[in-house]
Design a protein that fits this description.
With 400 residues, this protein is α/β, with parallel strands linked by helices. 22% of the residues lie in helices and 31% in strands. The protein has an 8-stranded mixed sheet, sandwiched between helices. The protein has a 6-stranded antiparallel sheet with strand order 9-8-7-10-11-12, with no helix packed on it. It has a 5-stranded mixed β-barrel with strand order 1-2-3-5-4.
């Protein structure tokens, strides 16, 4: 095999999708992860990372010789090789994007959890073209003070005049209309419910420091750059999926772990009734303050300011009925999973934004006597490789 250096252009047949928004190809026996391609295509790909002897190379498809029928023209001029890293799949039809994401979920669960599943990635109601959905955007600022996004796997900033996947309230916020001298990072958050906007320049808010969101029949306060789902329809979709997964009953005890501003705790507390109980655990102090405000009328909810694994080790009850596990992208991890399994909940709803982390934790749960009894996936991040899953885990019959 002759190694290819960065900048070299090679001709390859493109294979299956891989986790991370690229596709697997081979050149003279070496694996090449190609962006801006599609399975079945023949492309000329320019090497962007790697060297002779490396386990794999990275590349961009700079010329399509044989195109897939799923290929379309990107809506954004920056969604191309050398452009910004905000989108992975603008060159792919929405239907094909969802098939690709489903394939990644299936492959990760098979490889990391040894579980074979079938799943379809569901569209969020009202999402017709996959554009204009992103209500929270983190932007970099270039040397000339212009707001934009970084190139894929690079610190270089691509200045933007607008972003097609950003919500119109973000594009109309003025963030792209002026320069930002002396600023390195901007964060824009908008509420479709109230029309409110928050702009943070290097972490400092300009004007009102919180938003009002609406989901699950309630208003929610979210402060500063606090976490809230970026797709306007996501919160309602996830609450419905978690409620359907857990089938909460009056009088049961629920743990809401990584509770954020209290969305799942607040939505499900009503299902559990006056005799029910919710323990909601969150480590971020700002989110916890919002949760206290959001759940002040939920007398059955107890909020704890703690890291989840530490709380499970020192403060958790001896048993519980239900769990909502909504960890960050890195997943819950072995320690959290092991301690949850000891509580023997009858059902766990695992809300996951990373299929690999989900698969690793599912594999751990299986080794501790649980089984994956349900899985749904949602296209909360169109045009990107990201996908949200809600997995249901229950004790195996012989383990209950």
């Amino acid at each position: 095999m002759t190694g290819e250096s960065v900048g070299a252009v090679v001709e390859v047949e493109v294979g299956p999708v891989a986790h991370g928004g690229h596709f697997v190809a081979r050149h003279e026996g070496q694996v090449v992860f190609v962006r801006h391609a599609l399975p079945g295509e023949r492309v000329r790909a320019q090497i962007t990372e790697g060297a002779e002897g490396a386990r794999f190379l990275r590349a961009d498809a700079v010329e399509v010789l044989v195109a897939s029928p799923d290929r379309v023209e990107p809506r954004c001029p920056h969604a191309q090789p050398g452009g910004c890293g905000g989108c992975d799949f603008q060159h792919v039809t929405l239907a094909a994007q969802r098939r690709l994401k489903a394939a990644v979920v299936v492959e990760q669960l098979h490889r990391l959890a040894k579980v074979d599943v079938e799943v379809q990635v569901e569209a969020v109601p009202g999402d017709d073209d996959g554009l204009g959905w992103r209500t929270r955007t983190r932007l970099a600022v270039d040397a000339e003070g212009r707001a934009g996004l970084r190139r894929h796997r690079s610190h270089d900033v691509v200045a933007l005049e607008a972003c097609p996947i950003a919500h119109p309230l973000v594009n109309d916020s003025g963030v792209f209309d002026r320069t930002w001298p002396g600023i390195t990072e901007l964060q824009v958050a908008v509420s479709v419910t109230s029309g409110e906007r928050i702009l943070l320049a290097d972490g400092t808010p300009s004007g009102r420091g919180r938003l009002t969101e609406r989901a699950a029949g309630r208003d929610w306060r979210v402060s500063g750059a606090g976490f809230w789902q970026v797709h306007p329809g996501a919160a309602d979709v996830l609450v419905e999926a978690v409620r359907s997964a857990l089938e909460p009953r009056a009088g049961e005890h629920l743990l809401d772990l990584y509770a954020g501003v209290g969305l799942f705790a607040g939505a499900l507390a009503e299902d559990l009734g006056r005799e029910g109980r919710v323990d909601a655990v969150e480590s971020d102090e700002s989110a916890l303050r919002d949760a206290r405000r959001n759940l002040h009328d939920r007398a059955t909810v107890r909020l704890s300011h703690a890291r989840v694994e530490a709380w499970l080790r020192t403060s958790a009850p001896q048993a519980c009925d239900l769990v909502v596990l909504d960890p960050p992208r890195t997943g819950g991890g072995k320690g959290v999973v092991e301690r949850l399994a000891r509580l023997r909940p009858r059902a766990i709803a695992y809300v996951a934004c990373d299929p690999a982390s989900l698969a690793r934790d599912v594999g751990t749960f299986i080794g501790l006597g649980y089984e994956l009894t349900g899985l749904r996936a949602f296209d909360l991040f169109p045009m990107t490789h990201h996908v949200e899953c809600v997995a249901v885990l229950r004790p195996r019959a012989e383990s209950s």
